[in-house]
Automatic annotation (TrEMBL):
The keyword Cytoplasm does not apply. Its main location: membrane. One of its GO terms (molecular function) is UDP-glycosyltransferase activity. The lineage of its organism: Eukaryota, Metazoa, Chordata, Craniata, Vertebrata. It is found in: Membrane. Belongs to the UDP-glycosyltransferase family. GO terms for cellular component: membrane. It is a single-pass membrane protein. This is UDP-glucuronosyltransferase 1-3. Keywords: Glycosyltransferase, Membrane, Transferase, Transmembrane, Transmembrane helix. The keyword Iron-sulfur does not apply. It comes from the Eukaryota.
Length: 137
């Protein structure tokens, strides 16, 4: 099932039919596109979204980075609450957001790794930068 995991219908369908899922996406705002495939994401040198830190952080910026990482799933879960309820009803078991996204076969990430901070990724994550790039006017 080729789907965008932001909308949980495709992930739910893939789990229900026991089919492999291929996620085609730009990224989750809560960094879930690295947490779900269980990528190492060391807080000491990978800044979180919306912190505006660089990869060379001071001690206080690292503390801020750790707090933002701790709070990320807290502000992401309410956004997907209705979808998780629906998925739990369809799959007839309690599921979490990570339960739906963990079994993905391939993650097609629509950003270029050159513009991102260096980080370890799993073998099933493929960067396909350059898609949907329009020149600004």
């Amino acid at each position: 099932v080729l789907t965008d995991p932001i909308i949980l219908c495709g992930a739910t369908l893939a789990n229900y039919l026991s089919l492999p899922a291929v996620f085609f996406m730009r990224g989750f705002p809560c960094n879930l596109h690295y947490k779900a495939p269980q990528c190492p994401s060391p807080l000491s040198y990978i800044p979180r979204l919306f912190t505006f830190n660089s990869d060379q952080m001071t001690f206080f910026q690292r503390v801020e980075n750790a707090l933002v990482d701790f709070l990320e799933l807290g502000y992401c879960n309410p956004f997907y609450e209705e979808g998780i309820k629906f998925s739990s009803e369809v799959l007839q078991r309690d599921v979490s957001l990570q339960d739906l996204l963990n079994p993905a076969s391939i993650w097609l990430l629509r950003f270029d790794f050159v513009f991102e901070y260096v980080r370890p990724v799993m073998p099933n994550m493929v960067f396909i930068g350059g898609i949907n790039c329009a020149q600004k006017k």
